[in-house]
Each structure stands twice: as C-alpha cells, then as structure tokens.
Amino acid sequence: MKKIALVPGDGIGPEVISSALRVLNAAGFDGELVEFDIGYGRWRRDGKAITDDDIERMKDCDCILFGAITTPPDPGYRSVLIRIRKELDLYANIRPLRSSRIDVIIVRENTEGLYSGLEMLGDEEARTVRVITRKGSQRIAEVACRIASERKHLTIIHKANVLKSDVLFLKTCREVAERYGIRYDDMLVDAAAYNMVIRPEMFDVMVTTNLFGDILSDEGAGIVGSLGLCASANLGDRWALFEPIHGSAPDIAGNGIANPVGAIRSAAMMLEWFGEMERAQSIHQAVDRTLSKGVKTPDLGGLCTTSEFTDAVIDEMRRAGAC
Ligand code: NAD
Ligand code: MN
Fold first, then answer.
1. Per the record's keyword annotation, is Magnesium included, yes or no (predicted)?
2. What is the pTM of this model?
3. pLDDT confidence of residue 78
4. Phi and psi dihedrals of 245, rounded to 5?
5. Which one, out of 127, 162, 267, 305, has a CA that is 20 to 30 A from the CA of 277?
6. Nearest CA to ligand 1 atom 16
C-alpha cells in the first residue's frame, strides 16, 4: 500500500486538503495516510515549524500531499516548503496551466536560483546569492524536454542579457534541447510575462529558474482565472510532493469558501505519479464538468462553499460511474 505524508498546514491548507481527501476516497484510492503537524501554527505553539525527525519520517513515505503553509517575513523563520524541497531533492516543479485561454506547462527549477538560502540581512545592506549550476540546469532541462517531446515545443525563459547566472542556464538548456532533438526557442522573462497575457497560445512548455517560475506560474494562474484552480507536482528522483500553487490565504481562511480545485487536481497528479491514470482522469473530468456547469466558489464569482463544490465533484464522479 502506498504511504502518503499528509501536510494540511495553515490557513486554507486544511480546508482544501480535506476536499482532496474526500475526492481521493470517492475515486477508490486506498493509501496509508501519515499526518504531519508542521508549519507556522506549530511554530507559534512550540517554536519549531518542522524538525529533523519530521523530515526523516517524510522520507519513509512515498510522497507528500501538501496544503499550504504560512511563511511570515520574519528573519528567524525559514520556509518549511523550501526546506522539504531541498532535503528531499524535489528539483522539478511542474505547474500545468489550462483553461480556454491557455494551455501551458511551466517547469520550474526548484532547489537553487534565488532560493538557494545563501543570504545576509544587515541594516544597510542585504544580499541573496543566485546559484545556478550546470547539474541543476541540466536535470531540469531534461525533465522539460521529456515533457515537451510529447507536446509541441519548449521555451527557455531567462534573463541572460543581464544575469551571468542565466548565461549558464540558457546554454545548458539549449544543449539538452539539442540532444533531445525537440523544437525549442528562448525568451527573456519580462517579455515572457507580457506575452503570456497578450498571446498565451505561443507557449507550450516553459522551463525556467526558481523565482521566475514562481512568479510566472502565479501570473499564469491569473490567466486561468484563479490561483485556487492550479495544481503542481514537485518531483525528485525518489520522492514527490503534490500541492496547490496557492498559499494559506489568511484573508479567507476559516470561512469555508476556499476553492479546492488546485488541491483536488494536485491529488490527481499524485495518482498519475503512482501510475493510476484512469482514476486521475476521472477526477480531472469531474472537476471540468462541475466547473462547466457553473458550480463555483466565490473566487470565480460563484456562491458555493468549499464543501458544496466538493460534493458536486463527487456527484459528477458517481454519475460517470467512477465511484
Ligand atoms: P495566497 O496564495 O495565499 O493568496 C493570494 C490571494 O489569492 C488571496 O487573496 C487569497 O484569498 C487568494 N486565494 C489563494 N488561494 C485561494 C483559493 N484556493 N481559493 C480562493 N482564493 C484563493 O498568497 P499570499 O496571500 O501572498 O500568501 C499568504 C501566505 O501563504 C504567506 O504566508 C505566504 O508565505 C504563504 N504561501 C505559501 C505557499 C505554499 O505553502 N506553497 C505558497 C504561496 C504563499
Ligand atoms: Mn508561489
């Protein structure tokens, strides 16, 4: 039986994770769940957001299903998610963006770049070191090329005109794309941000560094219609973590109105990673049908609560005979 580390986290994290679990159950997925109490709530209670022991226990699971965790801008607090990504070497962040306007997969490098953790904060000056390695660029480019080889083409997103670190990133990605023999081009990140809004159809698979990928994927979520709709997989060679791309949304937490689609689709991506393609497909299709009937949470202009929306998705699955 698959062993899944469950991290509901803070804010709307537990609300959307409970929806994802209900849908997984309805799809007939049967796994062992190991729940972790980590995050900002835990930090405020006992001064520790996550411990070495938590990391070790996570490594004993096959993968992680993650809600969202609050990261306060406090110099004494280190992002839990960034630590998990690093310790489990989850180097490839895959973020599909799909709607009537856009159909793109962002492949974001997840362990280095500006999130290297090499930082210095003083009163007069602060520094963050942007680390780009050949190995890191190579392995993310390989993931992107494998995805692009089953789709149309790859765009390498960078700022190599200004940043020397991106000269290495661009050069390495080009070498890998040549080796894979796929169609590819490249674009400066600022132009890409503009073009995603103006003509999103020009993109198919985008590969980029950590911070650029973080920003472009939230932009893409805006084009899709809501941050609450988008899912992601953080993949390594051994473990994986699945999470909606949104954060803990403290502004709406506790009201029961969070959009659970990102979390539900993240759970479906977890099933795909396990090779359970049919179950995953039945979930994606039930979500598509629910949305197309106009059943929506307030972020999309609807009136549904999180649990009403989830009920509607499960009804759709029943109707299709998927559960
Ligand atoms: P956010 O993604 O939490 O929220 C941004 C806006 O989108 C808010 O108005 C929120 O209400 C809305 N939104 C987000 N998800 C939604 C959903 N499922 N349904 C409806 N509306 C939704 O980003 P933020 O406000 O910048 O950050 C809040 C906290 O979350 C911060 O502490 C931040 O560090 C953390 N964060 C965590 C993650 C993560 O755990 N992966 C990612 C991003 C931000
Ligand atoms: Mn983000």
1. yes
2. 0.95
3. 86
4. -80, -10
5. 305
6. 228
| pLDDT above 90: percentage of residues in the chain | 95
For residue 62 the two structure tokens come to 């096959």
d(CA 164, CA 96): 29
Is 52 exposed, middle or buried (CB count within 10 Å of its CB: 0-12, 13-18, 19+)?
A: exposed
**Chain centroid offset of residue 23 CA:** 19
**CA-to-CA dists, residue 225 to 97, 196, 231, angstroms:** 10, 13, 13
Which residues face 244 on adjacent strands?
A: 231
Residue reference for tokens 């405020």 = 44
Closest approach atom of ligand 1 to CA 258 = 19
- Measured in degrees and rounded to the nearest 5, phi and psi for residue 68 equal -160, 150
Q: Please name the residue ranges forming H helices in 159-234.
A: 164-180, 189-198, 210-224
The token pair that represents 11 in the structure block: 């804010």
Residue closest to 207 by CA, chosen among 130, 146, 129: 146
243 lines ligand 1 (CB under 6 A): yes
d(CA 253, CA 273): 29
Query: Which residues pair with residue 6 across a beta bridge?
Result: 35, 65
Confidence band for 117, pLDDT divided at 50, 70 and 90: confident
Give the Cα separation of 147 and 104 in Å (integer): 11
The β-bridge relationship of strands 126-128 and 3-9 is unpaired
pLDDT in tens, 128-172: 999 999 999 999 999 999 999 999 999 999 999 999 999 999 999
Ligand 1 near 248 CB (within 6 A) = yes
Q: How far apart are CA 323 and CA 311, in angstroms?
A: 13
All domains of the chain in start order, with CATH: 1-91+227-323 (3.40.718.10), 100-224 (3.40.718.10)
